[in-house]
Amino acid sequence: MTEQHTKIELKEVFKSFSNNDVLKGVNVSFKEGEAAAIIGESGSGKSVMLRIILGLLKQDKGTVLFDGESISIVRHKFLDKVGMLFQGGALFDSLPVWKNVAFKLLRGPHKLSSKEALIVAENKLERVGLGIETAKLFPAELSGGMMKRVGLARAIAHEPSYLLFDEPTTGLDPIKAANISQLIKEIVDEQMATALVITHDLSCVKTIADTIHFLHEGTITWSGTHDEMKKVDNGMLFQFVNGLPSKINDPT
To answer: What whole-number distance in Å separates Cα of residue 156 and Cα of residue 160?
Structure first.
């Protein structure tokens, strides 16, 4: 079996906002070709961690590495290889769907002609289960599920080596959520991408993730597989997985 190299690594990463200490020394790594999930309670810092990886936020202390180099130095090189599906889709309302999908193909290092970019956009829309007639629509004409699929098509349009997903199933009913999770899994496997999913949806985690990391009180307190997670029988991870309240009031 080929050794998997570490592609992204966080070492002792801290981040605070005013008096709120969100990340308190996060240590975690993501290997080449691995699909990893970060789970945790609301407000635990999952999205903050993702923004730090993307360089949208600067950590207060610690190091973020990409291929062994500080991501602050090679951020543009890293971002050129990243496809991102944002929680709300983050589509540009003023652009037709095909220009949203082809956004990275109409500028920068991946630039194609408009005709070539349209062809790629239509192909990617078909790959995520949307007809090419969707290309000429505008985001306001799409359902929530369609917006997720367009966002996914945009994420894969430039054939990225890294795929990052921020709550990809939020706002979808269970059937649509399951369909999106399965589609993400297929695309990650097809592209042999290194993938990171931020989610509360444990069904999504089960479908997509090879490795799961539990972020609690500012640190990664547990890492393992889905099967290993099911065997955890106490502590905060057990409560999270089983949907138990952190405190149970005595009715008497």
So the answer is: 6
121 in any annotated domain: yes
Name the amino acid, one letter, at 35: A
Residue 248: DSSP 8-state: -
Residue 38 burial by Cβ neighbours in a 10 Å radius (0-12, 13-18, 19+): buried
Q: Residue 166 domain-assigned?
A: yes
> For the chain, how many structural domains are there in total?
1
Q: Are 149 and 180 in contact (CB under 8 A)?
A: yes
> What pLDDT sits at residue 249?
47
Domain of 154: which CATH number?
Answer: 3.40.50.300
Q: Block means of pLDDT (10 residues each) for the chain, length 252 residues?
A: 76 94 95 93 89 91 91 85 84 95 88 94 94 94 91 92 91 89 91 91 93 95 93 89 68 40
- Asked if residue 131 is part of any domain, the answer here is yes
What phi, psi does 140 have (nearest 5°)?
-65, -15
Neighbouring-strand partners of residue 17: 20
Spatial contact of 229 and 237, defined as CB atoms under 8 Å apart = yes
Beta pairing partners, 91:
none
Q: Which domain holds residue 196?
A: 34-43+79-241
pTM given for the model: 0.89
